[in-house]
Amino acid sequence: MIIFKRLDHILLSIPEGATAAARAFYTDVMGLTEMGGNHPGGAIWFVMADIQLHLREEAIGPLSARHPAFEVANLDEARQELTQKGVPISYSSDIDGRQRFFIRDPFGNRIEFLQYDG
């Protein structure tokens, strides 16, 4: 059984070349605080209550990288259960302090599962 803890973050796609405009909108209009750092894929991350909002440039294509990310208490067991049920697992870049993997639901939606180290 997968033990879900909470929604950790949501990644939204923005058009290529729109990072500066997105940064201005989400800081100046929405009032969010940007999290500094060198994030995967050139993403910009914001604090939004107790979750994070990630924005990353993406070309339009058949399968989007946008996704919700769920923190789980048992990442290895979740991976094993999904694999046993025939769900393909994929991986992406490493992020310090957390382990993660991705799946796609039957409709092509990308979903991230993660667990923080320690």
TrEMBL record:
<dbReference type="Pfam" id="PF00903">
    <property type="entry name" value="Glyoxalase"/>
</dbReference>
<dbReference type="InterPro" id="IPR037523">
    <property type="entry name" value="VOC_core"/>
</dbReference>
<protein>
    <submittedName>
        <fullName>VOC family protein</fullName>
    </submittedName>
</protein>
<feature type="domain" description="VOC">
    <location>
        <begin position="6"/>
        <end position="116"/>
    </location>
</feature>
<dbReference type="InterPro" id="IPR029068">
    <property type="entry name" value="Glyas_Bleomycin-R_OHBP_Dase"/>
</dbReference>
<dbReference type="InterPro" id="IPR004360">
    <property type="entry name" value="Glyas_Fos-R_dOase_dom"/>
</dbReference>
